[in-house]
Structure formats: structure tokens, C-alpha cells
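note to self: dont lose this again. the chain is below, predicted strucutre after it. 104 aa total, dont forget to put it in the shared folder this time
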Amino acid sequence: MSLQSFAARRALLPLAGLAALTGCGEAEKAFDDGYKTQFVESFTKTCQSSATKGGAPADVAASVCQCAADELVAKYGPGELLSLSDEEALPVMQGCARQAGLEV
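---
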């Protein structure tokens, strides 16, 4: 290998590293998006089931639960969603209930 060839390859290494990091960033975003999608589905299903068992009309429960899931995903990252407490979720749920015209 010539010295020029070696120098050219060495100059490209940082670019290759940058490309790899960009790929990791895209993989992380895909993971985050997938996790958030699963969270919304699971949260909405559990929330609706609990609300309707408590006597809420199904359409109101669906609307409030979907609103809360969407707002929680917008507010918290995947790691935070994983350890989300009832105390953290409650204000969001109350806000969505108010938006739906319910007294909280």
C-alpha cells in the first residue's frame, strides 16, 4: 500500500465513523418510535378497559385515553415512559378529561 493510499484511507476514517453514528441515530429513533407506538397501544387499551369498568361511556373513555397516551408520548422519552408513575400521568389524564368536557 502506498503512503498516499494509506493517507487517503486514514482521512476517510472519520467520515466512516460519522456515517456509522448516523446509522445508530436512525436505529435509536426507530426504536424510540416503535416503543412509543407500543406504549400508546398498551396504555390506551388498559386505560379504556379501566375507565369503562368504572362506568365511563366507551367513546368518552377512548377519546380521553387516546389523548392522554399521545400527550404522555410527546412529553416523555421511552425510558421515562417505562417508569412513569400514576402521579406523573394523572395531570395529563385530567387535562384530557377537561378537554373532553368532563369535570375533574
